[in-house]
Amino acid sequence: xxxxxxxxxxxxxxxxxxxxxxxxxxxxxxxxxxxxxxxxxxxxxxxxxxxxxxxxxxxxxxxxxxxxxxxxxxxxxxxxxxxxxxxxxxxxxxxxxxxxxxxxxxxxxxxxxxxxxxxxxxxxxxxxxxxxxxxxxxxxxxxxxxxxxxxxxxxxxxxxxxxxxxxxxxxxxxxxxxxxxxxxxxxxxxxxxxxxxxxxxxxxxxxxxxxxxxxxxxxxxxxxxxxxxxxxxxxxxxxxxxxxxxxxxxxxxxxxxxxxxxxxxxxxxxxxxxxxxxxxxxxxxxxxxxxxxxxxxxxxxxxxxxxxxxxxxxxxxxxxxxxxxxxxxxxxxxxxxxxxxxxxxxxxxxxxxxxxxxxxxxxxxxxxxxxxxxxxxxxxxxxxxxxxxxxxxxxxxxxxxxxxxxxxxxxxxxxxxxxxxxxxxxxxxxxxxxxxxxxxxxxxxxxxxxxxxxxxxxxxxxxxxxxxxxxxxxxxxxxxxxxxxxxxxxxxxxxxxxxxxxxxxxxxxxxxxxxxxxxxxxxxxxxxxxxxxxxxxxxxxxxxxxxxxxxxxxxxxxxxxxxxxxxxxxxxxxxxxxxxxxxxxxxxxxxxxxxxxxxxxxxxxxxxxxxx
Amino acid sequence: xxxxxxxxxxxxxxxxxxxxxxxxxxxxxxxxxxxxxxxxxxxxxxxxxxxxxxxxxxxxxxxxxxxxxxxxxxxxxxxxxxxxxxxxxxxxxxxxxxxxxxxxxxxxxxxxxxxxxxxxxxxxxxxxxxxxxxxxxxxxxxxxxxxxxxxxxxxxxxxxxxxxxxxxxxxxxxxxxxxxxxxxxxxxxxxxxxxxxxxxxxxxxxxxxxxxxxxxxxxxxxxxxxxxxxxxxxxxxxxxxxxxxxxxxxxxxxxxxxxxxxxxxxxxxxxxxxxxxxxxxxxxxxxxxxxxxxxxxxxxx
Lengths: 612, 301
Known about the structure:
The complex is a heterodimer of chains A (612) and B (301).
Chain A (H helix, E strand, L loop, with lengths): L3 E5 L2 E4 L3 H12 L4 E4 L16 E2 L11 H11 L6 H20 L14 E2 L9 E2 L5 H15 L3 E3 L2 E8 L5 E8 L5 E5 L2 E4 L20 H8 L4 E2 L4 E8 L13 H4 L3 E3 L13 H4 L6 H9 L13 H13 L9 E4 L6 H7 L1 H11 L8 E10 L2 E2 L13 E3 L16 H23 L8 H16 L6 H15 L6 H18 L12 H25 L22 E6 L19 E6 L5 H4 L7
Parallel strand pairs in A: 1-10, 2-3, 2-11, 3-7, 11-18
Antiparallel strand pairs in A: 4-6, 5-6, 8-9, 9-10, 12-17, 12-19, 13-16, 14-15, 15-16, 19-20
Helix pairs in contact in A: 1-4, 1-12, 2-3, 3-12, 5-16, 10-11, 14-15, 14-16, 15-16
Chain B lengths: L12 E10 L2 E10 L6 H11 L19 E4 L2 E4 L14 E4 L6 E3 L2 E2 L2 H8 L11 H6 L6 H11 L6 H5 L16 H11 L9 H6 L11 H5 L6 H18 L1 H9 L7 H6 L12 H5 L13
Parallel strand pairs in B: 1-5
Antiparallel strand pairs in B: 1-2, 3-4, 3-5, 6-7
Helix pairs in contact in B: 4-6, 6-9
């Protein structure tokens, strides 16, 4: 048995993006011994890439805004598949969570009278996004990081977590992983574990996500017996860079459209007016003149269709490109240059200016950007209890992108940063309370640790096997082409066949070099997560025979009312044992069961009967 | 640094000379890769990993210039690998990529940057003034845009630590690290000192323990900053002025003697910092004893 070091804590949080940091701050403030374990250096997590802002009904720009409007926007944006209680808590608590950041040193842009400035975004009735230019995520993570350091929270950087550990009663009792710099194994025992590992986008070729977004938390929770929901609901952000190829998929913030940017096809037409769905017709401008008036005065007209929810905009762009009206590199044009002064653009969108200038040689104050849809966000994830973020496995909590339910079938821009603040804090409380009430010594199963360690080092013992980079490449190509923005039954079935092959290949990886900072090995240990979440997404997509939000089926192009009332819940039989597929519990045994979406109480239902 | 000259070498080949090694030593190795239009240095490194050297160590995250992970020295210049386009480098010439020289090598292009996280812990944290009655009513602090912009410039910092790497107070002078915070953390202190709400006073600490006086404003840090933060002009020089004001202005000195101090003293400020608490960073190698940075003779250039 390989040696490993052990650390003992009350609460262990996996992931140091916004949700993990916020959970750690809360658990620590409640007096618990808290550890933060992250796969990269502190402050580098994917939250850093969030650009546009954090949505919260502060009412600083439009005093008529309040949590009920935000709640309603969120539910409609999610095509009513959301967990209503999560959406309610999120809308109610996000203003306090944003203001609290200011008490910790964040410096948001200001209104004329000195309060936090808010900007318009798709699907939000009022200007609602607290922001700092177009680098809000950086401000958020740095503020939380500095607060965590000031509070003396222990951080374990560059640790890859392999598996959750459970005691004899099935309660989560810790995790096992390895230090990436040394390759040495490490375990953490804990009375409660919070998963805050973020998204799954790395399994697609063109994604806004960093290398870390391999779905580790979703996969580990599933392997440990937790329920997942809505895994088919993956958001393709409408505006990613398309050229040069090396940066294809890189995020272009929605703030470009919130601040006046418009979409045009190769004929120069503002095509979004052709794609206004009935659900949003009453609150969307019918002419360019009306839409343009709205930017200056929201009471003078309805919002332009460029600010429809992301799923609508992404599908419309896809249709234009398919109809042969795309840009030279297979996207469409996003034009802010003709809408705002160069000075305005550089002040409001400094990162975008910088990004296009340095990576594409394009001056966005003078020319339009070429953009197209890119894999961005997993609405689905671990099923949690809204108030506590408890998963269906005792001792395990989840917050942020790794958790499902909050955003339904489609997330509104700006709601992710507020989500991770609201539910990060709630996860900290939930885990701390669970840990405080847990009695008896926390025990870990040596057998579980040995199994994880053995599976991790097995590739070093093989020769002439598969190259992990090839498997990753082929997985990404499979998901991009067969489980992308538009799906169809036959292609999804084909994807399952390909995933079977890829899983089999992943058991044959062989590695060279040592365990110290070996990216080939690191990738090899990420592959089980990537393969697992890819299978879950594909299975969910096969089951949901309709189009809703981020899930679009060519063969079932319309929403089906009955399917809007169910979540597809996925789980494995944990006692099924390993079937040899990448050393994890049998992911071939995943079941996808329709279960009713929680029913909203009447007072909240009434909000949807009022005029838009 | 996509500046003036852009060279199209697509269809050709490029030789990447990459440093391979660990704390015990190493050497440069050449990898010949096909040229692809529009690529950045990090793309080519990734292709080397995927084809010839799967164990080539390289730290990166966002590949968009936003996280500051992929810092290295490209043809001798401290740069982000993800923001350095291949077509801005001299065509036909070998591209040399070495790890940052001011930090101990972990493996290949990856260095141990824990020094920076340790310095961060020693900076007295943000400590805001109380809200006024009006602000409690409004639900948040009132600050004018013009007043937050000075600190916002420093909060653009992505912590790539290139400024720390290039700073010759610690580059090749490991002994200075114990008493020198470096440009990144002078900017952090400047950000807090200029924050409209902060009440801590870090001036004496900066002078006596963080070596502000050692900086002789050569502006190398400003030159390499990928966020174009004017570290020297807007952070370090104003801090030096503030420290001088606090130390040598006789009126201010007298004022301090006779007036009850509203701000925390540096000692109090330091005591309120978490340095005495549990360690916030635990890089594994720190436990095992990281070898000192390689000497100038065998260091990668």
